[in-house]
Structures are given as C-alpha cells and as structure tokens.
Batch of 3 targets.
Target 1
Amino acid sequence: MKSHSVRTHKSAENLPRAAQLAWKTAEVAADPVPVEPAVVEMIGNRIIDNAAVAAASLSRRPVASARTQSLAHPFKPGATVFGLSQHRRVSPEWAAWANGVAVRELDFHDTFLAADYSHPGDNIPPVLAVAQHCGLDGAALVRGLAASYEVHVDLVKGICLHEHKIDHIAHLGPSAAAGIGAALGLPTETIYQAVQQALHVTTTTRQSRKGEISSWKAYAPAFAGKMAVEAVDRVMRGEGAPSPAWEGEDGFIAWLLSGPKAEYQVPLPEKGEPKRAILDTYTKEHSAEYQSQALIDLARRMGPKLGDLSKVASVVIHTSHHTHYVIGTGANDPQKMDPKASRETLDHSIMYIFAVALEDGGWHHEASYAPQRANRPETIALWHKISTVEDADWTRRYHSRDPREKAFGGRVVVTLTDGRVIEDELAIADAHPLGARPFARAQYVQKFRTLAQGIIALSEQDRFLGMVERLERLKADDLAGLSFTVDPGMLGTQRATGIFDWSGDAPAATHGLSVVA
C-alpha cells in the first residue's frame, strides 16, 4: 500500500490528473490484478449476507415503496429485484435503488469503521445490477466488487466526513462508480470521470442520521448506488465531471471538509498489488448500529449477574466519542429516549438497545424494535437510567490502526439500589474476525437461513446458496440467479401511488410520498 497526500490546490496550480485522488482510485479500479481466493470467498459471504437481510425486510414499507418505484421502469435485458422472478427485469439503476434499500433497511449487514464510517456491502447492489444488465460473468462481478470494496475502505481509512456532518455515502458513490468501471473493464480515464461525478452528486449532510431519523437512512446508500450507475453511463457517452473533485479550489476538501489548509492521507494499493480491503471489514450479528454490537453481547453477558433489573439505580456506559455523541446521550436527542420513536431512531439509541438486551438476553431484528416492546413500563424505567460518557482511551482505541487494539465497545458500570457496583467491558463484538465467535461461511449461511425462514422457500434458498458457491465460475446467464424469488404474499399487499404510477386521482399518502405497507 502507498499513502497518498490529498489537499486543496488553487486553480492556478493546474494539478495534473495523475496527481489527483480520483485518478489514483481509477487506476486502482482499472488494474487487472487477480483476485485472491480469500477475497473471492469473502465476496461470496457478503452476497449471502446482503440477501439475508434483504429477505427479512421485503415486506417493510420503505423496501416495498422502492420496489414499486423500480417496477415502473421495466427494461431489457435489465437487472433483477429481490423477491421477484428472475425474468422480471428493471433498468439497472432502479434495480440498484430497490435492492439497495432492501439491503440497508434493517441496518444489519457489513461495516467498516476507521477515520469515518461505512457499510461497504452497499456497493454490491449497483455493481451486481450493472453486471446483470450488461451480460458480465461471475469473474467480472468479483473483479468489480473487489475494486469497490478496496476504494471504499481506503477512502474511509483516510478521510473523515462525520466531523463535518457529511454523510458517509460521500465515500460510497465514488467506490460504487469505481467498482462498476472495474467490472466493465473501463479505461482509467472513464472511471476517473465517473468517480468525480459520483462524489459530486452524493455529498449530503448527516441530518439523515440525526434527530427524528426517517426511512431516508435506508434510502441514502441506495441513492448513492443509483447515482453511481448513472454517473458511469454518462461518462461512457463522453461526458465529464467537476474536476478536480476532491482537491479543487472550490471543491470537496476546501469547502465541505477541513478546508484549504487540510491534508489527508489516503492509502491505496500500488500497481499489481492485490485488492484485499474486504478482508478488513466485518458484518453484524445483531440488527443495530455497529457500535452497539459489542454492547449487546456485553448486556447478554451481564444480565444474569445483575438479576432483578428493577434494583438497578444507574447504568453508565464509558465508550468512544462516536458512540457517545452519535448513539449515546451525548447526541442530546430527546428522541433517543422516546418510546414512540421510529425504528431508525431506536436503532441509534444505545440506551434503548442496552436496556432491551439486558432484559431479553439478546436482540431480534423485529421484536426488539416493536412498539409494544419499546413501550413496556419496566423497559422505559431501565432505559431512562442509562447514560453514556466519552472515555478518552476508548476513543483512542476506536481510531487505532492496529486491529489488535481497535475497539468498538465500552466499559459498563452498573450501580444497584443497595449501593453495590457491577462492571464489565467488551472491546469487540463476538462475531468480529477477532471476536469470541468470528463469522465464516457457515455463520453467513446460518444467518441467511434464519432470516429467510418462512419467507424464501427452502428449495430457493438452496438454489441461491449453490450459485454463490460457484461465484467466480458463473456464466453471464447465471448472474440473475444471485437474487431470490418469493411468493407474492411475502411482498406486502397495501399500496399507495406516487408519480410513477399516477392514475389521475390524488392518493392519501404520507407526506405526499409513495408509501407501500
């Protein structure tokens, strides 16, 4: 790996293309280095993981809304949509949209945390959609996904977005564009323009993850994937992009990040070096914000020690800056303590999550967020006794580049009404590669089987998993099989209309938007 210095340059400096971050990432994407077997294996794991969480979310309103929008854009050859027949195809950017929302809705797939945050599995829907539409084979898909993961992880390692309240999809748009370019075997020049275009149109604020969190939290990564498909299509036709996107005098770093005097260090593979970044990422065992994964495991461990939870006087979670300020009491979001809050908000409340995990001895992707669960009087009482504080050492470990020291958990101090104090700590989740029970192929398959139960027929589950086992050997006609079909009754039945299926009568839809129950 080589570390590249990235800073603002005045227009008069005329920064050469070869010195620009967009060009360097494009060179990485275009480099035809073979994909290592371990990387192929992990790509297959993440395809399984995405399908698992998509299956569990199929009938949820945001997913059904996105799917209905996509169906208004049928296209041949097109790409598949989770839940529908392989023969029912839509335009690739709309497939990326629908599948991206399905994957992201439950906040339950892979993660990578460094200078910034990310869910690199969000790259899979747009790259796969383009591969299906363009008749690529499994080897091309693998090449594209290895590139998208590499660019995404490396940007996350080098450039912090959240300190400037920029949402993390600003790294996803460029990485998805790079992955699509790699899968298609496009030249560096074309990928360079697409990366910049994708960055320019996917830079948004973190308000999507603050306060009253809406369904846009699931839509935002899908939007980035959709924009990446459109960006690549545009530049393939000879169009350009704002340049230099990162380093320009009025560009990304100068005005949206740390300013003209800032300098970032972005690591990228050198020419001929394998793209291995996916091996640095990790998935979730629990459907909740990643910083809560270790704390759910810790609650599961501490619950039996505490006994009668009505005897708890206070719970203080000593943790990192991010956990305290984003999902903890440091956020100063009253919604995080509100039993009437949305699922998306409760997902970003470690106080709620820790309370429920203590009471239930675990976490469930649906039951743990149910309104009746959140409104239990005893849960509310415990929930409101929980607070977080930033601990400098946990913040340091959170940002450590040493994987053996890096930590996403915290230390929990429980004070009982009789004055006794019980405390414990856990640095990383059990399912983390360095955790107590690291996930491998068997665990990804089990997660898929569990979430698909009662939704995807067993024969269809077997067929899908068999396709993933042959991933790199799949022919072009096989790629449609990297989806799944369910009985229409699993997709939800109530539908409200929007612009794409307008019939002349104004629908009674929430906030004027298309809603599907």
Target 2
Amino acid sequence: MTQHTADNLAGLTPGVLLLREEMRGGKMKSLGNLEFGTFDIELALGHDAIWLIIRRENRGGAALRAAFLPAGCFDAKLLRPGPHDAACIRVNSALGTHRIVVELHRDTVPLLRVRTALTPAAPLLVSFIPRDLYPLDSRDDPAGAEGKVEAAQRGFNSGAVYFRLTAPPFGSVLYFQNLTALNPYFRATGTKPDGAVGGLWPELGYLVPTPPQRGIPPAASLPPGEETLLSDALLTFHEDISGDEQDMARRYLVMLGATLRHLGAPRCDLHDWPGRAERTLHDLAAAPQATLSAYGHRYVHPYTAAEYPDSMVQLSILAAIRDYEAWSQRSFAIGAELAAGLGKFYDTRLKTLRRYLPNVGKDKDRNAVDSWYLYHPLSKLGRLALDGDRPAFRLFRRSLDFAIKAARHFDYRWPIQYDIRNFRVLQEARDDAGRGQTDVGGIYAYVMLQAHELTGDAVYIDEARAAIEAAKGMRFELNYQANLTAWGAAACMRLWRITAEEQFLRQSYVYLASFFHNCAVWESEIGHARHYRNFLGVSALHDAPYMALYECFDSFEAFERYLKDSGPDLDPAARLLVSEYCRHALDRAWYYYPDALPPEAVSTCQREGNGHVDRTLSFPVEDLYIDGQQAGQVGQEIYGAGAALVFASRCFHHVEGAPFRLFCDHFLLASERASERSFSFQLGGGEGREARASFLKIGRAALPSFTVKSASGDPIPVHERSAKRESYLVPAGGNLIVNW
C-alpha cells in the first residue's frame, strides 16, 4: 500500500476542494459540539452538506458528511436527542427532510455512529452522491493529511475501509457502513453495494449506489413522504498508528469486533443436521450420480454425475464420514469403499498423491496441479492418521518428502499452478502484483504440524516455521482461498502452543484479519438473497463473486481447532469473530441445499462440465450470491456434502443414558458428567454474547424437566419449549451446569 502525502496524490476531487475552501474560510455554520473522550466533534452546516468534524487536539481529524444537500437547505435544527442518542439534526431542503441521529459509545474502543434518513418531498430519482469521509491535517486541510488505506470493501463483502492517518498522528480508523440497514434503499432504487466503501485518498467512505445514468434514465425512485435510510455509518477509532503487520491485524480485529457488537444480526435457526447427514450418506451410497467405479474401487464425482474423481474430493468426503461414524458409533459401507481406493491416487515414482486417477480423460492435464491441491488431501490423511487409521498414516508418511521438496523448491511462496513432475510453473500469479496462492503456506504448515504430532520429528516444526515466516508481509492480501487462510490461522495457533513463541499467536491475527476482510458482515435482502442467509459468509476466493459451502465448513473445522488450541491469551475480539462466524455458519450453510430454496432461486443452467442440480439429492450447490443472483450456477458440489456430517458431529452431543441430545451453536471446550442426571460443559464463545443450548428429544420418552445454571449458580430461564425440544440462551463464554 502507498503512503499518501500531498506530493503523491493522484489529484483532488471537487468534494476535497470545496471542503478545503470551506474549512479554510471558516464558512461553515456551527450547529453545536459534542465531547467524546479525547475527541471534539463539531456539528456544522456547510454549503451543500451537514458535517461532523472530528478532531483530536494537534493531531488532525476527519470530516464526515452526514447529509448531502446539492441545492442547499432551508433550515437545519438541532433537536432534543433521544434517550440513547448524543444529537439529532433535522434538515429541510428542496429534496425533502433529512433526519440525522448521532450516537457516541464511550467503550474501550470509541465508536461513533451516524444514521441519516431522508423523507423525499417528491418521487426522488437518486443521482450522484459523493463519498462521505475525509481525513484532515492539523489545519483542517484534507489535502495535507498523510496516511494509508490498508483495506477496503471487496465486491459485496463488508462495506468497510480501514486506514491510518499518520501525519498528523490522528490514529487508525475503521469506517463501517451497515449495509443490512440499507436494504430498503437498494430495493427501492434497484441498486447493489458492489465495492461501495473505499475511495481514493483523501476522499474515502461510502459511495451511495445510484442507478446508471445512460440512455434512458432509470425510473426507480424513493417514495415521497416515506422515510428511507441512506446511511448507517459506524466509525471506530484507535490511537495506534503502527504499521507493523501483526499489530495492524490485531487492531483491525479489535475494531471490527467492537463494530460487530453494535450491529443487529439475523436469527440463527436450529436445523436438523443429523437428519441431513443421514440423507447425505444414503445419497452417496445409492445415487448413481454420486459415484463411479474404477480399478475395482468406488470414487466420488466432484459434481452431480460430472467431473473426474480427485484426491481432494475423495479425502474430504471420507474424513467427514469418519467423523460421523465416530459420533454415531456406526459404520457405513460407503466409508470403507472410498478408503479402499485411495492408493490409486499415489504415484510410486514421484512418491506423492496425485490429483487425478491414472485413467483421467485427455481433456485434463493430469500433471497440472494447483498448489493447494498437493497439501489439502494430505491434511485429511493426517487427520485420519491421528485418529488411528494405519493405512492413512502409511500413505501420509510416504507423501511427506515430496510435499517438503515442493515447498522448498518454491521457497515457500507457491504459484497458482505447476507441473507436478518437474515444478515447471504453468501459472505464476493471480494478479499484476505477482501474487500466487498466498495462503498455501498455512495449510502446508498445518500438515507439517500433523507430521510432527505423528512422528515426533522436529524437522516438521522447522518446515512449519519456514512456511509461516515466508508469508509475512502480505498484510490484507494474504487470503487466496478462505479455508486455506483459516487453516493458516490454526497452524499459527498450534505452532504457538508448541514453541511458546508469541510471534505465532500474533501472526494468527494476520490470517484472521485477511479472512474477515473477505467476509460479509451484513445480511442481504437483494433479489434471491431474501430466501437465504449470508451474514458472516466469506467469499470462496479473494475475488470470488460468491460464497461456497466447501470453504465454509472447512473453515468451520479449522476454527474449531483454532479455538480449542487458543486458551485465555486469545484476543477477545478474535474469539468473538471466530465463534460468531461458526455460529452463523450452522444456519447459513443450510441454504446451500437446493431443497431448502424455492425452485426459482436455483439456476437451471450450470457451468459447462459441472453436471446439473438435482433437488432430490442431499448435496449442496457450490455457490450462493450476496447480490441475490440465482444459486447453483457453478454446480451441485458433491465434494461439499461432508458439511452435514461435520456440523452434526461437532454441535450435536450425546448424553449417555438420557432421552435427549444436546445441541449447542458454540463449541464445547470441555464437558463433565457429574452424576447420572447432571453434567457440566464449558463454551468458548465471545464475551458478553449468547449461545443457544437446546435439549432435543430422542426416542419415545418425553423430555424431562431441566434446570440450567451458570457456574455461579444463577438459574437460566427457558427461552423456547415444545414437546420435542427445550432451548436456553446461555453465556457464550461461560460454564453451564445442567440437571434433569
């Protein structure tokens, strides 16, 4: 990222020039002042806007345009604020009436919230509205402020821009636009917030999406006499301006966590993941579209009746089946059949797993391998080996030397794709900056740590360390594929546990910051998105237009390991974000299954070669779109079918001898059966948040009467009750005691 100074600015927009002129000449009319810790906030009326001028004495500031008034205003009045507001401003103009509400939250991380709504005087066709945030130097000059934008909105992910104002040393700012609250505006105008928050220094913030002005102008208007929210901006401030990658990442997580606490979130429904898992296993075993036979063994199609078997698909499904078998204490023939064919992926000459079987069709380059494809199957083999699977251990160990050879050849900085025979690069980079698969080092490090756990050989610790060290300096460009980034965070956490070197804990925050930068911390109601949830969903790739279930549940697994390895030293904001991601994944993931969506929300046309969508099969579609496009355009991914098995085995808990099963939407870090009719468990969620704990009826016996208490003995009331389940909202980071 470039440090922006007056000497290297690309130019000044009319908005910057006008603001500078008004600030220089003292031409704004003051409407009042607010004290906010070390900040002073002036409410002011300018030539064509209402402003909040936020200053720190001798350390610069920022100007936030709260309302744009291109024709000026008739009057602006400071009204009596509501009980939770710091200020309320009413502005009358030719456009109608703007209402601006200001909130000040004097928490550990100061947060300013400004909501602006407009009641149009006539049907209003919205045209250009400039961005709304300008850093200021100590003379209130936006052109003189020096700083750096570290991260801005990507596609339809969170509407946020994170920047540092370094000269004068104002601090760091996270500007966050609550896009959830703006759904009525998007519907009324037919617009979408694609990359709406960002900007070019020093004009930053939110660029209100407006209909394109070409040919015949669009006719979608804001209704007269009806109030529509135009902006819901939350700004968090931090005094630190350090450019250290690890400090900057942790600071971003702290500020995003503070923002999340002030946002409303969609409800999380309880879904029957065990039932979904059973249907999935049936379809894997019985549906001819799911598998094929080769070399006397059974292999999984990546998509419905389409694509060649590959090792990543085979091992992802098998690992999930093994988890479900252990949870259900039953064996499934399909698991044994898939395990029996793994050896055919092994190349005895190269001594490594291949992506494809030897008989792959000529339309595929069997020697081309995406960098992550070498290591992800090994991570699943390692999982199986750690669970006591001896054939998996042998195959895993036989592949380790080649895995290390490839990593060292590329100096732990992998390209997009290479020839597995000689490491000749087939595609070097994903962009003009020369970046390859930047987060492969994370999954590689995790595989090396599995190898260390299985063998005790310290060379694998050195390899993990080298991979994590090589990824340093990527900042918010670290994320290539979401689940790989999540496994990188888990590898850092494990490496910290093994070495006690704090740098690895801190480096885990860099992986998390990059992951959550690609996350949608808002709930879209645009188009078909109204039929499903996307809150805290993450883009499959750094630039992908959709969320994908495989990356979703694989990240869920990685974060389970991250939290269970973390302990009390984990930053509370990181714990909050990770646990909330996992909680919402349990709900959001349900809507990838085509039978959970209305038919019109699922595309009838899939990517060429990716088969078709069959609504009768319990396999998920690959793609859900935050902007409301039809789901399943890429295809129905059988390789993502392990999601149901993973969610069931992680969040539904057996209680031996009891006529119920416990569901919890947070991970149980520990549990203890205190007596025949009582047990206790510990959750690892965010401080001050709530978790859902539900007791689900199994068998014919009625649910017993429950008493749920906190560790201090305080009773927790029932939240919901029916004949089949009883639910409680409990502290997400607490210890609970249950009696029945």
Target 3
Amino acid sequence: MRIPRPGIRGKILICLVVVLAFFLVLALIMQHESIALSREYGASLSNYHLVHRFRLNLGAFHALTDRYLRDPLSVKAEDVYAGIASLNAQYPALVPLENISILAEFEVRATGYGLDAYLPLVSRAVGLRAAGSPDYYQVFVKATRIEGYLDVYLNRMLSELMRSGEETYATLSRRAEMLNRTILISMILASILAVVVVVLVAEAITAPLRRLAREAEKLAKGDLDAGIVEVHTKDEVEKLTRSFATMATSIKEMVEGLKEKAELEKLLHEEELALVSMGKALREAQFMNLQEQMKPHFLFNALNTIARSALLEQASRTEALAMGLATLLRATIRDSGPLSTLEDELRLAHVYLEFQHARFGSRLQWKIDVPSEVHSTRVPRLMVQPLVENAVRHGLEPKVEGGALSIKARMRKENLILWVLDDGIGMSQERLGRIRASIVAALSLRSYEKEKSSADAGEGLPVPKPEMDGENRLVEGTGIGLVNLATRFGLLYGDKCRFDIVSRSGRGTLVRVVIPVGGATE
C-alpha cells in the first residue's frame, strides 16, 4: 500500500506537532521531577512534625498526670487513662523512622522501651492515688525520671531528623538545579532545532514559488517561452508549477492561433468592405429610383389640389386630413439632418394622431403633457411619431373598444425623459423579451462600429458584431420600427441613452426614452 506524501499543510503540521511534542515532554519531565522533589521534602518535614508532636503530647500527658496526682478533683482519672491509650496508639507511627539512620533507629527503639516502662508506672501511680495509698508518689517519681529520658530520646531524634532533613534539602536542591539546567539546555537546543526545521521547510516551499514568480514575470513581459519550472516536491507546489506550465503553453498556442486568425480576419474584412461598398451603391441606386418614381412634388401638388377642392366644397375635415398627410410625407422623405426640435416632433405626432382619429373616431383618445420650456430641445428626427404609431397600430388598434394614449416629457438634470403610454392590448413576456434583446443589440451598434474602426486601424483584434434578431426587423411594416429607432439612438448618443419598454398583456405598454441634452453626434 502506497502511503501518500503530505502536502504543504501536512508538512507544516508535522513540524509543528514535533516541536510541540518535544516541549510537552520536557514540561512533563520537569513537572514529574518537581513533584518528586516536593514529596521527598514533604516526607522529611512530616517526620519532623510527627516526632515533635509526639514529644509535645508526651509532655502534656505527664503534666496532666501530675495535676491529677496533686488534686484528683481537678482532673478525671478517665482522662489520664485516655492519654495512656493515645500515646500507645501514636508510637507505631514513629517505627518507620528507624529506616532513616542508625541513630534514628536507636532513638526510636529507646523511646519504645521507655514508653513500655513509663506508661505502666503512670497507670500504677494513678491507681494508688485513686485507692488513697501514699506510695503513689514514689511510683510517679520513677515515672517522671523515665519521662525525662523519653524527652531526651525524642529531642535527639528531632536533631537527627533535622540533620537528615538538611541533607535531604541539599540533595533536592542540587537535583532541582541540575534539572533546571538540563531543561534549559534542552529547550535551547529544541528551539534551535525547531528554527532550523522551520527554515528548511519554508525554503523547500518558497524556493520553487520564487522561481515560479520569476517565470510569471517573464511571461507577463511577453516571453511566451517562459513558465517551465521543475519541482518534485509531490505537494501543492508541484501541482501549481505543472498547472502554470500548462497555462503558459496554452497561452502561447492561443496567441499563435489569434495571430493566424487576425490575418484571416484581415483578409475577410477587406472582402467585407468591398461587399459593403457594393451594397451601399445598390441601396443608393434603389433609393434614387424610388424617389424618381414617387415624384414627391407631384404628390404634394395633388394633395394641395385635394385640399383646395375640399375647402371649396366646405369639407374642412377632408382638407385637414389632406394637409396632415402632406405634412407626414414631407417629414418622412425630406433630408434636413438627424436632429429636430421636440416641438416639431410633437407637432408631427399630433398630425398623425389627428389622421388616425379620422379612422377610429372616439375609440382613440390622447393627451400630450410636455412643458413649453422643453419644446426647443434638440432630439432625433422622427423620434416621437414612430413611438406613437407603434402604440396605435400594435396596442390600440387591435382593442375593440379602443383606448387612450399619453405623451409626456420632462427635463431631469442634463437628460430629456420621454414617456409614451397606452392602455392597449400589451404584449406577452416572450415577445417583450425578444424586442428588448433586439433593442439592446441595436444600442450596441455604435460601440461595435467604434471598436471595429479601431481594429481596422490596427489597434486590436477583430470585434464581433452584436447579434440582432434579423436585420429585416429594423423596419416593421410601413413605419420606422422600434429597433430602427434604437439603432439611431445608439449611433447618436452611444451608451449615454436609455430605451426601456414595460408591457403587460391586456393592460398596455410603456415606452421610456432617456437621452442626454446636447450629447448627440450629428
């Protein structure tokens, strides 16, 4: 079974665990030795207190017995016998002290022999005193002499324990000092080793990264042959260097492919320019032919004749319609530049609505809410009438009971905002999405033309043309379509204009146009 090699994080964790484990072992050793030293010193001190406490208890017992023998009424005999039992019970605790030294062993045994002689004499003296015999005092004198010997034995035992304790304390001090010195040296060596290991691990990680950074700088400066770094660490650094080498190779292949594609696009662009020039000449010829066929002056003269005849016949409505139609035709075919005033556009929209009112009668209602201070604003030609025509044809005309249309315009900071609202049949969300997508593509044509010109001048790679939902949709029916209008907005204002449509099926449609004042390119 193959054991996987640790990655960067694994190496760092292993290094950290080893260092922490070493310091933890040192701490445990130091704690264990400190506890052992404390126990040894505590045992020595406890032995001293044990002997001292036994000596004090023996002296207190002897004084209690003496007080009883002098005045039996002041002390109970039971208290004296309880003291005898207590001393007998305390002496076994002194027996283990024999192991300290030979002198301690002698004193412990001497104390035991003395107690064996002392306590029976005290008990006998108390019994004689209780019986009223005068011999109790001689017995107690013997017991007092033995109590003096016991006090000497215990005192020498305390001295021996003190001497042994001092030796133990000196030994423990030397051991503690040696332990502290050993731990300090070990910690210093461990710290040095830890620093060396950390430096080696860091160098193993960062060295290939530095080489990779140098290769990345070469690649950023255009050296497509850079990016090859040999690393065999079996961790994330090796994966990173391999991925970087693969990326550098891919970039080199992609750049070479783009160069070949640019050459091909250049050839295709030259052919496209030739085809565009031919198409432009063809459209101009078709327009001139159509214009020659229409004979606009003949149509205007005919409409004026109809209007004069209607006037003579007192058909004012027919006269107004004829004059309105002449106005519409004149605005459609004349070439007076891309801009006009908002007042002229509103007048043209009003003429169109009057003309349509003759068809629909009371089914068509409208309202124009535009302050007079914005009438002189320069706007694209045929801006309002196509929006009104679109609302009437597609929103109000299919509605049996007809509807109303509202035109509103306001100045907001440096922008003119135009709203065209109808309460017609509206449109489905699917159709609204297609129209919005076409309008967005149309508004992008200006940036496409600008980037394409830069590419033609050698400033960049070929720019893809925005996709549109069929170029035959630029003109819908006989009027100028919304996409055509959006295209003109894009060419005149670029990304500074907004063209939004909101519609709900069965509730109507709102068209909102935002254009900068004075920001058009004529």
